[in-house]
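User: I'm writing a short methods note and want a consistent example. For Cytochrome B, I'll paste the sequence; you return only the structure tokens, no commentary, since I'll be parsing the reply automatically.
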Amino acid sequence: MERYSLLQRLLHWIIALMVFGLLAVGLTFMALEDEGMKSVFGEEITATLFKVHMTFGILLLVLMIVRIMLRFMQPTPAYNPPLVGIEALIGKGIHLLLYILLIGLPIGGWLATSAENMPVQFFNMTLPSLLAPNPELAHTLFEFHGLGGVAVLLLVLVHVAAALKHWLIMKDNMMNRISLP
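Assistant:
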């Protein structure tokens, strides 16, 4: 097998787009935390951004679970040429960390929002709270959620740099494994 299945490839690119969008909104939250989101965007736009961020975060969690199930059910195509040494170790490590963070961040956001005693919204549904209200815990969880987002950004940058290296410099057909066409 030379390529991931079409469903795996679609999930990869859909998740990638969602991660970029979630990072953009999350970094906006972090950048405007001191100035106050409501004072910059207004209350209605801020509420909409939070709802969209929560909705796509939960959707990301669901898609990641599907992606992990597919990974166990379908074989992983071999690298051609095979990765060896430190490159193989770094590649596996980055993928593992991305999977952990892309499962953990939505759960952490859900926990933080619950502890903040705010509704956890998924489209127009309100999901159950996972924690009792606890403002101190909410603050800590939101801090970790933000740091996790920064970690995802850094890992994605390394992942993209490696993909570009294989595609544009090495021209070793590595991108064929995950490309859509």
